[in-house]
């Protein structure tokens, strides 16, 4: 059934006049009359009856109008609806945060202050692929979206201030095989990477406690409950009277954050702007990660 004929029918039904309807929708009257005639033929009923010089809906016409008018109204609204949805999508940024929660949350908060109408949808799910940006610490080089390095920070070991080791600021990771660990679970990927380092040295770390609260980690390490892998640039330098930070001997332990860009970013000025903003913010702070502690 031709949509244009339905729109013509609704226009005629509202004005109850071919002449007025033709003027309202800017269509020649003969073309409008022909469209209504063909619609009558297609349906096999008369939709209008003539009353003097005017026309009225027939009983079948009234029934048809009650069903068709809402559909035509919805069709007429579609450009507006789609325009609004397109505008909303263009200022919506979908971010999958698999690592780097601390810096990215600050970046999102600051950007929202500057662009309050931006909608931020956040995920923390490796199975999600409907994102505009993904921040991860694992890049296997096989993803459909190439990753760029956002930052690289040395991973140190936080131990109680009175911990005795052969060097003031250096420790062999294998020497920690009998020690308890406090696992920082603000990112599952951080735990996975640091525990993988231990496994590469031939032992599985004995995790006494897992937490995503950095202050809890500080208190537990300072109390001698266990050691913890530490990012001084991201989490700050602990109180030296309670905790000391050790470099790990003969291992290049680094916490790298990668950024992937989804295909929709370049199609949206707002998405593209936030992507660039994120890259710039990390560039300004990454040097602190490597010098802290």
From TrEMBL:
InterPro entries the record matches: LysR_HTH_N, LysR_subst-bd, WH-like_DNA-bd_sf, WH_DNA-bd_sf
Record flagged with keyword tRNA-binding: no
Coiled-coil segments: none
Gene3D superfamilies linked to this entry: 3.40.190.290, Winged helix-like DNA-binding domain superfamily/Winged helix DNA-binding domain (1.10.10.10)
Residue intervals of the HTH lysR-type domain: 1-58
Lineage: superkingdom: Bacteria
GO molecular function, one term: DNA binding
GO cellular component: protein-DNA complex
Keyword Transit peptide included in the entry's annotation: no
Keywords, sorted A to Z: DNA-binding, Transcription, Transcription regulation
Record-stated family: Belongs to the LysR transcriptional regulatory family.
Name under which the protein is recorded: DNA-binding transcriptional LysR family regulator
Source organism of this protein record: Aminicella lysinilytica
């Amino acid at each position: 059934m031709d949509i244009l004929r339905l729109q013509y029918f609704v226009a005629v039904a509202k004005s109850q006049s071919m002449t007025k309807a033709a003027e309202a929708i800017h269509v020649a009257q003969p073309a409008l009359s022909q469209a209504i005639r063909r619609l009558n033929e297609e349906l096999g009923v008369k939709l209008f009856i003539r009353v003097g010089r005017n026309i009225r809906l027939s009983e079948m016409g009234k029934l048809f109008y009650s069903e068709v008018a809402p559909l035509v109204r919805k069709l007429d609204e579609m450009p507006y609806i789609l325009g609004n949805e397109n505008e909303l999508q263009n200022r919506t940024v979908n971010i999958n945060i698999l690592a780097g929660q601390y810096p990215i949350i600050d970046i999102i908060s600051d950007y929202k202050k500057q662009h309050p109408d931006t909608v931020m949808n956040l995920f923390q799910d490796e199975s999600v692929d409907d994102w505009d940006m993904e921040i991860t610490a694992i890049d296997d080089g096989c993803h459909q979206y190439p990753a760029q390095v956002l930052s690289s920070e040395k991973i140190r070991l936080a131990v109680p201030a009175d911990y005795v080791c052969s060097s003031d600021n250096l420790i062999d990771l294998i020497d920690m095989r009998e020690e308890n660990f406090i696992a920082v679970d603000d990112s599952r990927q951080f735990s996975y990477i640091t525990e993988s380092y231990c496994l590469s040295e031939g032992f599985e770390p004995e995790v006494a406690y897992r937490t995503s609260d950095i202050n809890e980690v500080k208190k537990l390490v300072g109390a001698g409950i266990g050691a913890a892998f530490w990012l001084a640039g991201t989490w700050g330098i602990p109180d030296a009277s309670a905790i000391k930070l050790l470099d790990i001997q003969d291992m290049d332990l680094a916490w790298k954050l990668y950024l992937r860009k989804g295909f929709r970013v370049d199609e949206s000025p707002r998405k593209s702007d936030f992507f660039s903003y994120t890259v710039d913010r990390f560039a300004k702070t990454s040097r602190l990660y490597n010098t802290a502690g």
